[in-house]
Amino acid sequence: MNSQWKTIIPFVVISVFGASTKAIAHGVRMQARETQAIEVNAEYDNGEPMAEAQVTVYAPNDPATPWLEGTTDNNGNFVFAPDSSQSGNWSIQVRQAGHGSIVNIPVEGNQAQAGGNGTTEAESSVSGVANTRTNFTPLQTILMGATGVWGFIGTALFFMRGNKSNSELRRSESQR
Amino acid sequence: MHIPDGILPASIIVAGYATTGGVTWYSLRQIKRDKNPQANIPKASLLTAAFFVASWIHIPVPPVSVHLILNGLLGTILGYYAFPAILIGLFFQAVMFQHGGLSTLGVNATMFGIPAILAYHLFRLCHKVGKNNSVWTGMFAFLSGAGGLGLSVVIFFLLVITNIPANIDAAMERNVIYGLVLAHIPLMLIEGAFTAAVTLFLMRVKPELLKQ
């Protein structure tokens, strides 16, 4: 009987502690879970990342007070997990040396009662991607620039045509 | 160096538009006094095109990179035409490439345009002191090109350094602003040299373009 218990007790102990998902050791408690995060990437319009730029996040329920502050990494990236109980537009401002931008990203929060134990679990989903950049290809950018320049050249040509009728006036001016 | 939307408080944005409105009116009045106000429009239009694309030309000044502005050049060659030219150039930069912003169009036009007009008056001093040889013209053109940009950088510096929001790390923001402003010193030399080169070239091949 006695020897039988000696073999069973270790299995009971192992199965009790093995059921716990928390790692407990010397007063450190850790918990890891999956959550929804927002990744921000900021770069200058010449493609350089905005490294170590200051990021300010505003929550939907208080757009005047910063909810989180931080800095981007060397690649201009900043990741944060929004408070899933707040749904609406999260505003993220990135600023460096008087340059910067604000982006609004909608987050839909689903509050659901996880019955019985009285805790509220919330799930959130980030709907879509917010962008302040105009995603033009280099060819499109060059074409747009060329049309703009052609507009200016056209204006110049138009007024040069007008000047020909005033050529006498110009000649008299240049003689003076 | 264009100030984008959302950086400055509303009062400065309104003041920027008010200043731009006033200076545009004054510039157009000065232009109207010309014998033939349309005669300089082709020149102004071509330089607006140059101003419009200049912001694409980036010059790396480690650790940052700066882009050409050319407001000193426009002022030196165009005189009072420079202000409307810069205003139109900035409008198209903001609308087509989100460079700057529509709300800060007034502030940016003031920041680039008024130094351009001052650069023109500085360049005119060359004629007033009666030194019309190419060395003096080149030197005054260099000073106008570099000084026009330099004054814009000073205005930019004052605007952003006095409007750092309370919630961000002010010391860190100030440091990067100092860095950006210092990076414009080599650009001032480049634009000064470019203005001198263009002015001397025009003086040789088409001197009437420099006469106002």
UniProtKB/TrEMBL annotation, chain A:
Top-rank lineage group of the source organism: Bacteria
Keywords for the protein's UniProt record, in alphabetical order: Membrane, Transmembrane, Transmembrane helix
TM ranges: 142-160
InterPro entries listed in its UniProt record: Invasin/intimin_cell_adhesion (IPR008964)
Annotated protein name in UniProt: Carboxypeptidase regulatory-like domain-containing protein
Origin species: Gloeocapsopsis crepidinum LEGE 06123
Origin organism lineage: Bacteria, Bacillati, Cyanobacteriota, Cyanophyceae, Oscillatoriophycideae
From TrEMBL, chain B:
Transmembrane segments: 6-28, 40-59, 65-92, 104-123, 135-164, 176-203
Alphabetically ordered keywords of this record: Cell membrane, Membrane, Transmembrane, Transmembrane helix, Transport
Membrane topology field: Multi-pass membrane protein
InterPro entries (alphabetical): CbiM/NikMN
UniProt-listed Pfam families: CbiM
Localization terms from the record: Cell membrane
Gene3D superfamilies, per database record: 1.10.1760.20
Name under which the protein is recorded: Cobalt transporter CbiM
Species of provenance: Gloeocapsopsis crepidinum LEGE 06123
